[in-house]
UniProtKB/TrEMBL annotation:
Sorted UniProt keywords: ATP-binding, Glutamine amidotransferase, Ligase, Membrane, Nucleotide-binding, Pyrimidine biosynthesis, Transmembrane, Transmembrane helix
Descriptive protein name: CTP synthase
Organism this protein belongs to: Salix dunnii
InterPro entries listed in its UniProt record: Class_I_gatase-like, CTP_synthase, CTP_synthase_N, GATASE, GATase1_CTP_Synthase, P-loop_NTPase
EC number: 6.3.4.2
Broad EC category: ligase
GO molecular function, one term: identical protein binding
Pfam families the record matches: CTP_synth_N (PF06418), GATase (PF00117)
Amino acid sequence: MNNGGGVKKMKYVLVTGGVVSGLGKGVTASSIGVLLKACGFRVTSIKIDPYLNTDAGTMSPFEHGEVFVLDDGGEAVIDKERRGDYLGKTVQVVPHITDAIQEWIERVAMIPVDGQPGPADVCVIELGGTIGDIESMPFTEALGQFSYRVGAGNFCLIHVSLVPVLSVVGEQKTKPTQHSVRGLRSLGLTPNILACRSTLALEENVKQKLSQFCHAENIITLYDVPNIWHLPLLLKDQKAHEAILGALNLHGIAREPNLKEWTSRAELCDMLLEPVGPSKFLFTYLAIVAMFCLRFMYLNHKLQVRIAIVGKYTGLSDSYLSLLKALLHASVSLRKKLVVDWIPASDLEDETAKENPDVYKAAWKLLKGSDGVLVPGGFGDRGVEGKILAAKYARENRIPFLGICLGMQIAVIEFARSILGLQDANSTEFDPDTKNPCVIFMPEGSKTHLGGTMRLGSRRTYFQAMDCKSAKLYGNRGFIDERHRHRYEVNPDMVSRLEDAGISFTGKDETCQRMEIVELPNHPYYIGAQFHPEFKSRPGKPSALFLGLIAAACGQLDSLLHAHKIPNGMAKKVSLYQNGNATKFAKIPADGIYSNCNELDPGDGKGEQSLILIFYTGLPVVIYSRTILSKP
Ligand code: GLN
């Protein structure tokens, strides 16, 4: 939708958080994106995380949850001071850093990321942290200036805050929100909308009090919902879009938000996640009962699917958030209830059998009870042998298996050991002296990453055969673009030996030196991917390989593959895909690019760029920006 003639002006929605962290600012920002898209706008987004790390990729998942990877790999450096741009002047937070932050935001916001020409209509910016944090000060200051710079009618501020309820009296307390809005105002930012997290909807008098003391006209309650997919609906019901469109002067050109599909998916998810009480939802209940009967009587299909995740950080499911979401997107789309069994890989090892037999038994029981096995990515050698045992079990017992990144490398090591009889086959990451290095260090020099050897960000994979499962699942495209984050890869010198023994490298990079997808053709579903397909999975647009895993785990892979349309003449090769910075990425033509829930799908409209800005001021300052639109 074009918002006016001439040069289009970008409209900005800034989402800040107050009182405490973990209020769901990200989900709110994503949901606003969904809502604005439903109004007919093209939306991009930026996330700013005020960390001091220069490389987000090295942060521990224990502290920060998962490291989310973007198409551009998330690494870019400005070194204005070192380049001498400041001509020896003292570099200060204001104006040097704040100016640079604003320039970056403006530049990144204009990059089209949905495959359509020209910039998006609206850019949703999520400012990480909580208002008042020292870390976010330069950013809040910059954004305060920015609101003035872009001018009224182009900027809408949504402040997500907390309204706690004192359990004794059940009173909804407004004071913390009042304080955080005061903090916001002192930094030159005035909220257009207060989005208040609370257990229940805010009472009318509480809303009035908030709007009076915080001078905010629009008060919205983000009360507890059965699953986060309800959030865009909650915002719509409370007319958040009208307030946003009003602040952005977009009223005239917006359409009524169409969230029909989204609503039914959220309801389906409720049904699959929660047992529904008959008194409350009699109709739904009856429908479920009917569905149960039908399934059992005629189709004999399973209603739930158990997936064992054999990983390292299984105690902290946040480390595998994208995996979980990707599994959920796939299972909801196949109308299955997802049950995830977390298995710490080391519990499957012989060592545990000796030291802790009960733990060992429990782990194997879980693995054997699963319908599908997922071995995710990982670094370091802890649990590697356990993951190899899990891959072996899945291969030998014909249990659907998906190995991601390290999981793929594990599958290859296991195959080399068991089928080629190379007992010491290993990755040089774990055994640098192995005589049979089937996975080796294959760094990729990155110009955009300081000292980086990681193969990071979007890379292209070409299918080597059209009749393999992965190509079919991806709709028989000639190639796909998926995100990477690794240093090691299958040793190209061992590929022919491995293939002669029956494993198939069905996806490779443009040089055919990097193995991207591996499959066992004679197995119901045994696939490994060097990339991370989970990062591009979206609600309603599940990732192909996850969909395959869930379908295979439910015995529905054949019908899924038959249902896929297979266009002709797909195996054409295209010119080399350019990696690197955001500008280059934006130039990739839309045609032929794999758009399963990715940035080139016009219907999805989310930016997937990142920005990291490092100023040499004695202390590095990092803006880590990423897009999580449509990610709930
Ligand atoms: N550690 C492996 C590598 O660096 C796998 C990385 C991953 O799984 N993301 O190649």
